[in-house]
Structure formats: structure tokens, C-alpha cells
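Sample intake sheet
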Amino acid sequence: MQGHSGTIQPECLSIALERIPAQLRGCPKDNPKQTQHMKEKINALLTVLDEYQDGLSSGPYDSTEIYRQEWDATNRAVYALQELLFVLDKAEREIKDAKRIKEVIFDGEGCCKVIGINGVGESYELFSYYTDELSFTEKELVGLTAEEAMALKVRKDIEFIQSGV
């Protein structure tokens, strides 16, 4: 992959850059592990491009036109990769937001089930509690993740037990 001058050869760089769209098509935006993996690949390619540009700056060239063309092509690739990172970061934020509780349904008397509805409309049971021991309002739970809601319930359970009521 490296030439005799220690720089990345243009044909190797072109092959690597041609593979990016195919890899991105196979990267579902709703899978945090694959999204993170793709971001790592993009950051690795950005490192390679940076090394390539360093090689361009120090390498001997017969023509400044060739140097300028290579530099411009590399800059376009860097810009495209940075745009892809932005898209992946945005997708990650949307995934996290979708997991937050948007609505709560209190179901039952005596023993109440708390059912959360997330940003994509999926409903799931958060927890249940006895209404003579604990109480929750929708305002307390909306905007939390399921884990944060459960931590709130545990905190209220502890407070109830410690109160000795």
C-alpha cells in the first residue's frame, strides 16, 4: 500500500475510497454497534488520507498540476468522510432520542403498571408498583430512558422503605 517514498499510493487510496459507499449501504443506521464500527472505519480512512496528504507535501513531483489534483481529490474525500461522520452522529442521536419515554400509561388500581411509549411508538412495560406505597406522575417519567425510569423507581422504593410507613 505504501510506495518507495513512504506515502500511500493513489491507486490504493482510490480502491479504499470506492469501498466506502458499499460499506455504508450495509450499515443500518438503527444499529448502534454497527454505526460505531462504521465511524471507526471512517476515522481510520481519515487518518490514511491525512498521511497521504503529508506524503504529498513532502514528495517530489514533476508537476505542480499533479500535486494540486491529488491534493484536491484528497480534500474532497476528507470532506465526504466528515459528512458521513456527521450523518452517523445524527443517526446515533436520533436512536437515543427514540428510546426516551414520550408518553406514559398508568394501568391499574392498587398495583399499577407503568407502560412507556418511546419516540417510535413502541410501548413497553417499565415497571409496576403498589399505589399505597409509591406514586409517579407522567411529568416525572416523560423524557427519561427506561433505565432512568427504573432508577427513579428504585430511589422511591428505598425512600419508602426508609420512611418506615
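Comment: Residues 1-8 have pLDDT under 50 and may be disordered. Residues 2 and 8 are 5 Å apart (CA to CA).
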